[in-house]
Design brief:
Distance between the termini: 32 Å
Number of helices: 21
Strand order of the largest sheet: 1-2-4-3
Radius of gyration: 28 Å
Oligomer: single chain
């Protein structure tokens, strides 16, 4: 049950009944002040000019017309025409009972779309670094949410596995193999391998010429160069897979479709643009001039799809990817997660692709930009020596720090259990600290804040879940036994009930806007509301009526299920004990 959608449908029907124009604004929002109901409808004021009546008079007509006999115990008009909706506890209890009996918590799938999500996309010439964290985990949370809502999701890991630097890398690898070094050993540290190849390219006589020659051979399909390239790519992908496993994200090898996959379509893509007159030759290059993005002086933006020497660019590959995703994969939506600095590029790409018919009018192309991870100095996050932070090393440090904290806490857990919990807490802390921030903003990376067991953090939420599970152990109760009639007789029970039924609103927003921080905010609010409920509404105290006890245990069970579901969608693991 989507409370907001259900109520909005009722109010739209009421607007039709009072003669409001079709598609009249129907603003429905959650009430933010105690005593003002649970939701508020503010459509009356927007209709005042159209209907030539006072907003309050219109509000009275809406209240008389809206059919909320089951859903609300009171509708009251406040101020100039706000309608405060006080939901009916009995109706809410019934909705919760339905959710409790449903593995999907009462959330129906949406009408299925085919959604392509382009995320992670590391450069295989180097190891994954902290700059790949946001795209990888935000993308994966969005993917999991879309799948939960019933969509067909096609993960596309657009890895950087092609380009001139690979001539340098395969030349260096060839020399290593010739010296009897195994590929896995030579490539065990991609950063060191890249630096060594670059030093040779810059300083060693003849190396740069050999590297350039190998680029030409590689692009021409030379068997030996392709074999070296495939070896390099395979070992590099293995590095990425290890990081994905540590991060608990769902990307697999079969989701990789790197830049090289589009090589055979690049010439055809440029030809299609030429035939339609979308690109023209300018100083030997093929350029699209985009009037829609002209500067203040009216000069159109230049978007180069082929260099004067005949070489292709990221723009060419991205256009070819659009052709493949829309024509071959049949995408209804395409979401691309990269940092905000690439926003102009993707805007230009969409304009050119739509003009060329690579994107149909009904297909969406959504760039989902994100801000940067910053250090305490407010600058891009680096090592103490100013180098790039490897993502694998960052995650290892997170687990080590979490293990220290877990070992300080009193518990009867074994060493093996503590280690497993530290893995979940450490990785979860890094992910949640990122996911809980609006993706469009920069944020400060801080170990102490993210690993805290207080506040809006993964450890707090993981602990909240385990605390509820401990209640069931004390009560000797299981989910299968919890089918009591739900009673909402206190304010705390009612507040928790409404929050539980708002879960679907949060995940629908993640699905439509690509904003996992909304889900993070929801589950943190839910955990906080539960703690207030727990303190005010005892469940296991002697003398409590059996029906009341079972009703509250059922509310606790629904809270645990919802917390686990939300954390699962975010890719954060839970545990039964902590």
């Amino acid at each position: 049950m989507n409370l907001q959608t259900h109520l909005l449908t009722k109010f739209k029907a009421a607007l039709d009944a009072i003669g409001a124009p079709k598609d009249s604004p129907a603003p429905l929002s959650r009430s933010t002040r105690a005593g003002f109901g649970h939701y508020q409808f503010n459509g009356a004021m927007a209709l005042a000019k159209v209907l030539k009546e006072k907003p309050r008079d219109i509000a009275e007509k809406i209240v008389a017309a809206v059919d909320l006999a089951d859903e609300a115990v009171k509708l009251e008009i406040a101020g100039p025409g706000f309608i405060n909706i006080h939901l009916n506890p009995a109706w809410l209890a019934n909705q919760l009972s339905l959710a409790n009996d449903d593995p999907r918590l009462g959330i129906a799938p949406e009408s299925q779309q085919t959604v392509v999500v382009d995320y992670s996309s590391p450069n295989l010439a180097k190891e994954m670094h902290v700059g790949h964290l946001r795209t990888t985990i935000i993308g994966d949370a969005v993917v999991k949410t879309l799948e939960f809502l019933g969509h067909k999701v096609l993960r596309q890991n657009h890895m950087g596995d092609w380009g001139t630097q690979f001539g340098m890398l395969i030349t260096h690898l060839n020399d290593k193999l010739a010296a009897d070094s195994a590929a896995e050993t030579a490539l065990s540290d991609l950063e060191d391998f890249y630096r060594a190849a670059k030093v040779r390219f810059d300083d060693e006589e003849g190396f740069a010429d050999r590297a350039r020659a190998n680029v030409v051979k590689l692009q021409s399909g030379d068997a030996e160069c392709l074999s070296l390239w495939k070896t390099f790519v395979d070992v590099s992908i293995t590095h990425s897979e290890e990081v994905y496993e540590k991060l608990n994200v769902s990307l697999k090898r079969e989701h990789i479709r790197g830049e090289s996959a589009y090589n055979n379509d690049l010439a055809a893509t440029v030809n299609a643009l030429q035939e339609q007159g979308i690109v023209v030759e300018d100083q030997g290059a093929q350029v699209a001039f985009i009037d829609e993005l002209a500067d203040k002086e009216g000069k159109p933006a230049a978007y180069i799809v082929q260099k004067s020497g005949g070489g292709y660019l990221y723009a060419t590959t991205d256009l070819a990817a659009i052709r493949y995703r829309n024509k071959t994969l049949g995408a209804d939506r395409t979401l691309i997660l990269t940092d905000a600095r690439q926003a102009l590029h993707f805007k230009q790409t969409e304009i050119v692709a739509r003009k060329a018919g690579f994107i149909e009018p009904e297909q969406t192309y959504e760039h989902c930009p994100f801000g940067m991870m910053l250090g305490n100095d407010g600058k891009p996050f680096k090592t103490r020596t100013g180098g790039t932070v490897k993502l694998a090393e960052l995650l290892d440090e997170a687990v080590e720090r979490a293990e220290v904290l877990i070992n300080k806490r009193e518990s009867d857990l074994s060493a093996e259990e503590r280690k497993e919990i530290a893995e979940k807490v450490g990785i979860g802390a890094v992910k949640y600290a990122d996911l809980s921030k609006n993706r469009t903003t920069d944020y400060i990376f801080n170990w102490d804040t993210m690993l805290s067991f207080e506040g809006n953090t993964a450890p707090y939420l993981q602990y909240a879940y385990t605390r509820i599970k401990s209640i069931f152990r004390k009560a000797n109760a299981s989910h299968a036994q919890l089918h009591a009639e739900i009673e909402l007789s206190t304010e705390q029970e009612l507040t928790l009930a409404v929050k539980l039924l708002q879960y679907v609103e949060a995940i629908k927003q993640v699905s439509s806007e690509g904003t996992p921080h909304v889900l993070c905010g929801y589950i943190y609010e839910l955990a906080s509301i539960f703690m207030t409920f727990y303190e005010a509404c005892p469940m296991l105290k002697d003398g409590i009526d059996e029906n009341t006890k079972n009703s509250r245990l059922t509310l606790a069970n629904l809270t645990a299920q919802t917390l686990k579901s939300g954390l699962d969608l975010l890719g954060i693991e839970t545990m039964e004990k902590m």
